[in-house]
Amino acid sequence: MIKLIKKQSPGRIIALGFAFIILIGSFLLSMPFSIQDGVKLRYIDALYTSTSAVCVTGLIAVDAGNTFTPLGQFFLAVLIQVGGLGVTAVGAGIILAIGKKVNLKGRNIIREAMNLGSGNGTIRFIKSVFLTTLAFELTGAVLSFIVFIRDYPPLRAVGLSLFHSVAAFNNSGFDILGDLQNLIPYQNNIMLNLVTSGLIFFGGIGFLVIKEIIGKKFRWSKFSMYTKVVLTVSIFLIAAGTILIKLTEDVAWLGAFFQSVSARTAGFSTYPLGNFSNAGLLVLIVLMFIGASPGSTGGGIKTSTLFVLVQGIKSAATNKTEKAFRYAVPSDAFRKAAVITLISLGVVITGAYLMVIMEPGISLMDALFEITSAFGTVGLSTGITTGLCDGSKLLSIIIMYIGRLGPLTIASLWYFTKGERAIYPDGNIAIG
Fold it and tell me: How many CB atoms lie within 10 A of CB 277?
């Protein structure tokens, strides 16, 4: 079995790793010691919760606060952490911790999983990822504790703070407050809103960007093109989302800002989204579909993909070279971005279509919102998740899995060649 796995491509190994962790997580969450007394948990719901945690989505079939024991909630936090960092990164970290070396194939797998340009400095990067994660999550936990200690006993406040910080930085959107309330009780708490937003933002821009920001001492002129693109698009989307949500919904500016940040794959909510208008839901759907940035804990088509698409369209419309920040956009970037976007649209539309068939009682907007949330590994919902049939839950599980690994990775798992040797003459085809 091990020899067979070693022969597989890095993409397949990553996919198998995520699937294995999901199955292990579903087993642990379904055990009696993970479930509160008097609560019944079906395996499909345990599998759904495990998938949502490992894929850092946050969609819930059962309320985590009312269903799982402290041990079960600990397992949930571990699954979120493993899913956010990536199975390969965690595996590499364990290997390094026990004093072993990561071989060349292992480095290649890590490079593909973390979207690294080359294999140089892979191990140093893994170490920096763990240190960065620890620093952000501990800081977030301390600041969250200041808020939670006002409403809960000290030990409970510590548990809530640690879980919330892990969930926020890994963009998962899980909460253990109970009663499906998410962060609605804290919609006016400025500190918790800002701390959570900060964790979501830095978790969503990716470890490469964080490393460069710190390494180059916050000097914009020293940043690479990639870092400038990620920061520019991320800030623009947050600002645009905030304004549009405020214009369409009766929420405070703080609430509009928080939902705009959270819709970028985090999944926390401070307002019941079931009360949002179709216009507000459409804004959130667009933000969820775009998602976070490559190499981050989030999903979606990614900010860099959107940027390349816009630059490609601009170039075609103006007959000018694709460029930004005094750099030329790589020649094959637009093609890759277009492929990813089209496959993603296909996944979302197909998923929404199937859900509407299986759930005739829900609206198209609710189904589209739910599927986009699953694909973008966001976790926001209009409140239909707990009432879905088993078929719809299995559909969401598949969509979450595709969203976490990436549609192009999934598409290339079964058949992928290094290229064709044959050369064919150019044909004619009308475009537009």
Answer: 12
